[in-house]
Amino acid sequence: MRFSTRLLAVLSLGGLLGTLAACGGGSTTPPPPATTYSISGTISGAASVTVALSGAATATTTTDGAGGYTFTGLANGAYTVTPSKAGYAFSPLSTAVTVAGASSTGRNFTATAAATTWSIPVAVTGAVQSGVTLTLTQAGTTLGTAITGTGGLYTFAGLLDGSYTVTPSLAGYTFLPASSNVTVAGANSPTQTFAATAISYTVSGHVGGASAVTVTVTGSPAPPPAVTDGAGNYSFSLPGGSYTITPSKAGYAFTPASAAVVVAGASVTVPNFTGAVSSTFTLSGTVTGPWVQGVTIALSGASTATTTTDVNGAYTISGIPNDTVTVTPSLDGYTFSPAAPTVTMAGAAKTQHFTATSAIPSHSISGTVTYGGGKLGRVVVSAYWSGCSNNCSPQAITSLAAPGAYTLRGLLNGTYAVSARLDSGGQGAQNASDPTGMSAGSVNVNNADVPGVNVALSDPMTTPTPATLAAPNLLPGNGGVLLFWNVDKDLSQREKATSYDVSFGATSTADTTVVNVPARDDGVYFRSGLVTGTTYHFKVRSNVGATNGTYSPVAAGTIGPVAGGFTVSGTVSFPVPATGPLYLAIGDGNTGNLQVSAYATPLTSPVSFTVTGLPAGTWGVYAILDQNGNGTIDDGDLKNVNGGDAPMVTVGPSQAGLTVALTATKGFATTATEHSLNQGGTSHGYGLQNTVAGNLQRVVKAAVVAGKHIAVPADLGGSREFYAWSNLASPAVPAVGDAYTFQVTYADGSTELLTSTVTAVLSSFARNLGEDTTTLGTAAQPYFTWSAPASPPANYGYSLSVWGSANWYYPRDAWMVPSGVTGVRYNVDGTASATNLTTGTYTWSVTVYDAAKNRARQEKIYIVP
């Protein structure tokens, strides 16, 4: 079982944790709060100046009567301080401040009256965007410094006419151009763009005993092979990372066979290789086709050996005797030509090439996305079933770093609509300010790829106006509160707001503290460190760029623990040193109850926890190691809040010995199975749901590239999690251990291959499905009942579906109800497509889920007279 959609969003989609205070494992006496620091200074030459803080935290304040300002409660991190007031220019324009174990004082500015000021916007692209120091100078004098945030954007504002120079810098990177000279003359400057490139280092070595030896680098990036010079030397220029260096030459064996090297900020000398004449030979070749990496090449016959192809489809097997061998390529989801040829070495090195073909046919749509506007961001291209008009899920998604050529793979025959948008907010959610476009007409895929489907992006016709929101909903908990609100959307159900201001305090005006929350189409915020027994008041407003909406009505809630007499205890482990606090959230997705405990540094894995005061129910145990200590779930934090990775416990009686293990992976993939059974128990069906989600990084593109019984390669659909649902054609049946491979691209531009395996194929069907139409229900609104499976899985639950002339899925906001629920009246939540069932035949089903989302679905026919 999981959180409801909104409750999970605050954890799985980067919802802010706020200024979380250590409340310690459910104890009634919290440990001391984490140490915080301040940034302060004075501004001369103008009164009541607005001062903005950005970077590791955001806040605003106004100078006091003496021109002073202070930002308090700050964690270690990089910040930028920027003053502003209409009619004034400031020196410096802004200043970058790094807080590292101490408060920073004397961050002073001087204001000068100016009739008109202008700005210079800056964008950093390429190998790095955030964390780049920008320095603005004029005639050799530094006017201001700033540090770029997510997306690599910053704007120097409040500038007078004149000539300026903008210079980016970050250790380990070079920038093109190195600096930019800008003349401001009566208007804002165009955006100054800098491309970042990682600095490379020399990896070199020597091969003795053989001349003209080919030396290959395996890793990412993988440069072309090098050949040793007359003295046996070779070298490569590589950025930081882990690599394997391998020498090769027909008729020679090398000691060692390969060497692993790590490049970390300095050049590397590889240990020497020594070659010797061999009586064995080498077989090499290349696999071509829709996917070529990771193909197993197996030898049998006179020699046995196994290797896999590299990213280019190339393979090499050495040490083969002078005889005949059989060469067999294999990768789940593909067939190969030739299938298993024989190769006779005949005293020389040989080659054998293969062509891969997808075992299950699928097709692609391709074209080009163009855009003539000035906004920056990734381009997301989606294919939908044509004619879908409500809650449409993409059948395939790809994304591009910028407008250009695209290909959507793995599409079955049918008619599609292709849309594209530019993610100008950089949050992965569609916004009304995003440039968008559609292909001209429908795209018919009929046993062939479809090229030339072009999409032109255009900016929105008008800038939306922020609306006044209804009062937010509050979920008070133990030391904190979960706040959620209806996001500000336009008629096309795209989010209008680009950010939200959450204002709260212990007084009815709710204006003690204001926090800015980026728009992510989730409308959630979590705040911890609140005083138990105190009533807090909250209000929210939506913002479109710099235009602020009107605050919503105020909502209030009293902080206190959830009532209950049960306890959950165990340990949280993590594989890397903890540099920030650990947060443990135990949540019930059906009631919305939430208990949060916090553990301040120093921390040593494993951390023991005990959470008391829990009512009975099925709870998810979610852990977040906030490595940068900024109170926000973001890149670099260890967490288990996505994709069913969190353990589920059934509370009542109390649970002890629970183990929560955090991983340090960028992302992860899961594979869930469905086993369906018709009413008569005569027809079995099987399906798979493959899901990819981010952990240390947000996923921006994912494709399943290998696996049994499904079309590969195929770009996954979805939005924040990427997924693909596949019905398996009979007689295909999934099996525990079946493996699937995914190619994943992250928000930082990096890529990697992930794997997942089938963990279970359930036969735990609900029993005794029936309809009560007299005592608990009517013919038009029956009470559906069932009994527990004969052999249920651990920590399981149910969902119910009805389809026919009316459709209903229950529960709507969670993927299962607790195992204790064995009956529900039709449309009890008011979400069915029709209030009553009319005369006719309906199919309804009860699905049993385990904690990993594997499921068994039992169907039944219901006839309304």
Give a written overview of the molecule.
- The protein contains one helix and 74 strands.
- It is mainly β.
- The strands form 17 sheets. Strands 59, 60, 63, 64, 69, 70, 71, 73 and 74 form a nine-stranded mixed beta sheet that branches.
- A hairpin with a 6-residue loop joins strand 52 and strand 53.
- The chain is globular and about 90 Å long.
How would you describe this structure in keywords?
1 helix, 865 residues, mainly beta, globular, 5-stranded mixed β-sheet
The largest β sheet comes out as: 9 strands, mixed
Helix content: under 10%
Shape from CA axes? globular
What is the gyration radius calculated from CA atoms?
30 Å
**Overall mean pLDDT:** 88
Distance between the termini: 36 Å
Strand content: over 45%
Low-pLDDT runs of 5+ residues are 1-30
Number of helices, where a helix is a run of at least 4 consecutive DSSP H or I residues: 1
Number of strands: 74
The assigned structural class equals mainly beta
